[in-house]
Design brief:
With 114 residues, the chain is mainly α. The radius of gyration is 18 Å and the shape is elongated. 68% of the residues lie in helices and 0% in strands. It contains 7 helices and no strands.
Length: 114
């Protein structure tokens, strides 16, 4: 995705919602939101912040297509957010241990599905 309008359309279609749904969430008209997806208008910073929160993506990614964390990561629920916040508080050695445990569980899981 090379530009903001493409990212907005992709995020919306991945979520399976219509332009009017996003417009209602933002408190704008459907045509105004449609212009964002067509690249005919640029959203205000307030609208961009609302979109970033709604789609759970960084503002950097929404605007530029990249951020400090690499690819777009969508946190799907509060339990994932909880674990990410806890993980970030660990020291490097403990992070390596956790990563090893996750790798082991993934191997075990793939073996059980074969």
């Amino acid at each position: 995705m090379s530009n903001l309008s493409d990212r907005l359309k992709t995020l919306r279609t991945e979520k399976g919602i219509k332009q009017k749904d996003v417009a209602n969430i933002l408190g704008i008209t459907t045509s105004a939101y449609g212009f964002y997806e067509q690249g005919k208008r640029t959203p205000t910073i307030e609208v961009l912040l609302s979109l970033s929160k709604y789609y759970k993506v960084s503002l950097d990614w929404l605007i530029s297509g990249s951020d400090n964390f690499g690819d777009k990561i969508v946190i799907s629920d509060d339990s994932e957010k909880f674990f990410i916040e806890k993980y970030r508080k660990l020291n490097n050695l403990d992070k390596i241990k956790i990563e090893g445990m996750v790798d082991l569980k993934l191997v075990e899981s793939s073996e059980n599905h074969c």
